[in-house]
Amino acid sequence: VIGERQDILPLRKLAKAIQTSASDANLGRELARRLADPVVVHDLNRVSLDVGEKEIPGTQVRKKALSLLCFLLTRTGFSATKDEVIDALWPDTDPGYALNSLNQTAYFLRRVLEPDFVEDQSPGYLRYQSDVVWLDQTLVSSDSSAARHLIAKAVIDPRPDLVDQVSLIYTGRFALDFAYEDWAADFRDSLHASYLSVIEDAV
What we know:
9 helices, alpha+beta
């Protein structure tokens, strides 16, 4: 409830030293999450992201790390199995090599989101456990997700103010950086068709 970033490390050390209960074992982790910079991915049109107040153009991120980020944003709950990620991003690659590539890509993406990443002190923007890879939706949001939410509301209740919000947030098709990637095509086309339907009905 109370604390600053410099308190996370001593709390984590204390958690390892006492080891008496589940709540003790998590000392410092919730503080790390509460103090984490929010990440907003601008994934309509060309991709960029805001990590707190820092703006990061997609061109400054390794292509595979950016593709992993955007691929997860297309999935329900921002989650996918390890095999789904490999099939989408390394479809024609030897399985062993593809798994190593995924591990390296997750490493690089974590360091985009957290340049000073330390495993035990991380708020956990990107998780990779038990063959599942996911983004924490309490820490990471995206323009495409916000647009989908508004479009769904406007379909049910096409008020002018909601339609205006949809038209303002939908600034272009999903992730033009990956215009020719198969994994992005269905999501991009579905979102665009939903947007056009809402605007047509409003007109």
